[in-house]
């Protein structure tokens, strides 16, 4: 085409290929979701429908990107693990990041009414994202452990805080009351003052959500193992909780 | 918090700040939009509603990000120019890219029904994006010229192609027929065979869409010049078409 | 060749091309030069021979790299300005940085005996380096001003400090004595206590060294303007000292 | 200091920290060494003194940088492996690259006379360098295998070529003669025509040079294992030649 005079501007597009043979994790975070959750009256400390909508978006990503082998979500964030041998988009960071964030965002709006049939979306939500590389499976385990420990800490705190608030304390009073309390103390407050056994609260709230491909054992002519994307709320903290990883060795094996 | 054991994984997040004092352009492209436009029966070669939906998303970005001073859209792509002094998100490339793509994508779905009231969205669309830096205003002019020249070339070709197809040729026959024809020849085909004067077709189709802040002259107490985001279909190719830039010197002045 | 099995490791070499049309500055710094200067008994606060050796290395770089249009040196550091249109090594940062630092380092040792005929080099000196990009000529002016202002500040301080030390004070006493003094006060100390007029000290000490190509006006058959690399100790702080830049407009013009 | 007006230019220095927990390899290559070796009449195909000078420079780097655990050199190139946990210079790529190349270059000149007592250095040699990251020990093994296989291929070819040239052929005739010959054929040419048993040529020529820390077993009061930097010409191609690595497990263990 006759566009040569200006086409030199393309030379300013610099390559951003990610180091080969390294685990790619894309983490997406709600942008201004405190305001968004208030505007849409999300239940506190956890809105089951909002979390299930997030999970549904994550499933869409695993359906669209075969190289995503695992995803972990909590609150308004989701992490997507690409297998380390992935050659998706020639491992161009911008392309990987932007398509993930874009599909997650559009799916969030698309599926909103499915999870909030009676709440119209007041404005378009948005997410930011980043790409991080990890050299080994051990790092990926530690990354996911980091997120799930964060989930535990934040959820226990928020559960106490909102229980206190619902019982009549102001937010500030509740925060002051909880300041410096240890994990065990928080559980006791919940149990003794409110009869709540923290450990029996819904696993999705306490553990976050794992999205991955589960092997489906069915009689098929091809004898190939089929897999389908599922959501579960498992313990994935390493090295303490290796049960899940031992049961699903293929997820991070990178030779699937 | 007691998350220290795993928190080291955060050290793998490397900085990606963009060079200061440089124009940032984020370009968004529809991902698989050929299929998407067929699935949603977009009119060929241009679907006015689809373009207006794109424009509406671009307006949302200018409303949300004051540092975007100009946007140019054609077909399923949109370019956003951030002023060169922008400190948005400390100029972190991933953050800027991901929030732009995200908001554009969610807004696209959110506003779909406004432009396609009778066509339900069949699946979630997505966009990819990239960030490019340009050192001077002259480069930004050339970048925008590059995109508008591309618009001209593609639109003229597509207009001919689809006119021929609608007249009974197959797509292959039409392509073969157009192969090697010059700009002037294409206009003559349109005019002599179909009575179409290319230059009177809608400017949005021929020139794409410019989104920017127009100064609003009204009597206000503060005496500050107000601006509002508008869409126009102007000639912006430099140095040929300096009229627009001369009329709007503040857009790329970077001291607004 | 039959090296294919292992050749995949080359794919881990990622591109590092610098943004086009941007001024490239390579700054080299002596590594551990406090120790090096003591080991080789450099005169304090300035060793003329050591500075002239640095200048001689800088000249070698301008002789080898036509794209270096200006260099500025002070103490054990040197900055090299590549013209903004330079395509040297396809603008690969590592290649540019490593060859500059390498040639500077090897030349330093090679020419040592020329400047220190009676002092054998006790061990190999080394330099570190970095590459920085600047979008406009104004930034390059500011960069060079930054370095020359630093030269002024440091040299005035060091001149006072070492004059006091040579007069019998300990280093700590001299530092304490100078703490908080302003530029003018320092000059007065030098003049009133030691009869030293700071402004008549050698320009190389006070202003650092500029290395550039001077136009040589001679009757030549080709009528082309010849240039040769020279060292000068000019005032280059902008916008105050524009004299040098006005006299040498071709240096940063980028169309030579 | 009063340098604030211009100090903003420092903000253009962007971070370039390397991914943590990844093996860093710095490879240095002679720049224009064909010309340099001709100017200094290096013996062909291998100049023992030139290689020993290269090795001596590599030893200097291991002496200076404890984090370099292994180096491999062949011809005018040298690769330095930093342990994956290295925090040297906060893993800033430019700093690591530039100091390595600088020290190598200055040492090369410094030690020249030791290896070439009767040949003055005609001009300053220079090297370029690059930094490459590898996620696992297996990649490091493959990287080093890649370089040693290259050494084998090139050295066998060059040995044949220069033997033919010394026997009277022109360089072009020799190249033509060797074109398409396999490894075994080359060995037979050397043996049958010139009585040279390739496998008895000096190991340094055939295998390149490995530089590493050898454990020194001596009776010491501290009972700590001492190590000293040595040069050897070992087989290091994996997985074929694991003998060396099995004998020196601590070199790439990263917990030394």
From TrEMBL, chains A, B, C, D:
<feature type="domain" description="Thg1 C-terminal">
    <location>
        <begin position="139"/>
        <end position="230"/>
    </location>
</feature>
<dbReference type="GO" id="GO:0005525">
    <property type="term" value="F:GTP binding"/>
</dbReference>
<protein>
    <recommendedName>
        <fullName>tRNA(His) guanylyltransferase</fullName>
        <ecNumber>2.7.7.79</ecNumber>
    </recommendedName>
</protein>
<feature type="binding site">
    <location>
        <begin position="75"/>
        <end position="76"/>
    </location>
    <ligand>
        <name>GTP</name>
    </ligand>
</feature>
<dbReference type="InterPro" id="IPR025845">
    <property type="entry name" value="Thg1_C_dom"/>
</dbReference>
<dbReference type="GO" id="GO:0006400">
    <property type="term" value="P:tRNA modification"/>
</dbReference>
<dbReference type="GO" id="GO:0008193">
    <property type="term" value="F:tRNA guanylyltransferase activity"/>
</dbReference>
<keyword id="KW-0539">Nucleus</keyword>
<dbReference type="Pfam" id="PF14413">
    <property type="entry name" value="Thg1C"/>
</dbReference>
<keyword id="KW-0479">Metal-binding</keyword>
<dbReference type="InterPro" id="IPR007537">
    <property type="entry name" value="tRNAHis_GuaTrfase_Thg1"/>
</dbReference>
<feature type="binding site">
    <location>
        <position position="29"/>
    </location>
    <ligand>
        <name>Mg(2+) 2</name>
    </ligand>
</feature>
<dbReference type="GO" id="GO:0000287">
    <property type="term" value="F:magnesium ion binding"/>
</dbReference>
<keyword id="KW-0547">Nucleotide-binding</keyword>
<keyword id="KW-0460">Magnesium</keyword>
<feature type="binding site">
    <location>
        <position position="30"/>
    </location>
    <ligand>
        <name>Mg(2+) 1</name>
    </ligand>
</feature>
<keyword id="KW-0548">Nucleotidyltransferase</keyword>
<dbReference type="GO" id="GO:0005654">
    <property type="term" value="C:nucleoplasm"/>
</dbReference>
<dbReference type="Pfam" id="PF04446">
    <property type="entry name" value="Thg1"/>
</dbReference>
<feature type="domain" description="tRNAHis guanylyltransferase catalytic">
    <location>
        <begin position="6"/>
        <end position="135"/>
    </location>
</feature>
<feature type="binding site">
    <location>
        <position position="29"/>
    </location>
    <ligand>
        <name>Mg(2+) 1</name>
    </ligand>
</feature>
<feature type="binding site">
    <location>
        <position position="76"/>
    </location>
    <ligand>
        <name>Mg(2+) 1</name>
    </ligand>
</feature>
<comment type="similarity">
    <text>Belongs to the tRNA(His) guanylyltransferase family.</text>
</comment>
<dbReference type="InterPro" id="IPR038469">
    <property type="entry name" value="tRNAHis_GuaTrfase_Thg1_sf"/>
</dbReference>
<keyword id="KW-0342">GTP-binding</keyword>
<dbReference type="InterPro" id="IPR024956">
    <property type="entry name" value="tRNAHis_GuaTrfase_cat"/>
</dbReference>
<dbReference type="GO" id="GO:0008033">
    <property type="term" value="P:tRNA processing"/>
</dbReference>
<keyword id="KW-0808">Transferase</keyword>
<keyword id="KW-0819">tRNA processing</keyword>
<comment type="function">
    <text>Adds a GMP to the 5'-end of tRNA(His) after transcription and RNase P cleavage.</text>
</comment>
<feature type="binding site">
    <location>
        <position position="76"/>
    </location>
    <ligand>
        <name>Mg(2+) 2</name>
    </ligand>
</feature>
């Amino acid at each position: 085409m006759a566009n040569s005079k200006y086409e030199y501007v393309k030379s300013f597009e610099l390559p951003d290929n990610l180091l080969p043979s390294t685990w790619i994790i894309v983490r997406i975070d709600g942008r201004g979701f405190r305001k968004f959750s208030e505007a849409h009256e999300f239940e506190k400390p956890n809105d089951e429908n909002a979390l299930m909508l997030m999970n549904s978006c994550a499933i869409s990503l695993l359906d669209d990107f075969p190289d995503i082998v695992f995803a972990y979500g909590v609150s308004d964030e989701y992490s997507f693990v690409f297998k380390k041998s992935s050659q998706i988009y020639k491992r161009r960071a911008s392309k990987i990041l932007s398509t993930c964030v874009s599909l997650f965002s559009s799916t969030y709006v698309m599926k909103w009414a499915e999870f909030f049939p009676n709440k119209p979306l007041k404005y378009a939500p948005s997410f930011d994202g980043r790409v991080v590389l990890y050299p080994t499976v051990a790092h990926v385990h530690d990354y996911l452990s980091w997120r799930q420990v964060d989930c535990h800490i934040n959820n226990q705190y928020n559960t106490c805080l909102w229980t206190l608030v619902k019982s009549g304390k102001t937010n500030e009073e509740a925060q002051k009351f909880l300041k410096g309390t240890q994990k065990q103390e928080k559980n006791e407050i919940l149990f003794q003052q409110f009869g709540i056994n923290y450990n029996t609260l819904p696993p999705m709230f306490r553990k976050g959500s794992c999205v991955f491909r589960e092997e489906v054992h069915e009689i098929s002519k091809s004898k190939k193992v089929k897999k389908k994307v599922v959501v579960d709320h498992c313990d994935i903290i390493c090295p303490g909780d290796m049960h899940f990883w031992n049961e699903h060795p293929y997820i991070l094996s990178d030779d699937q």
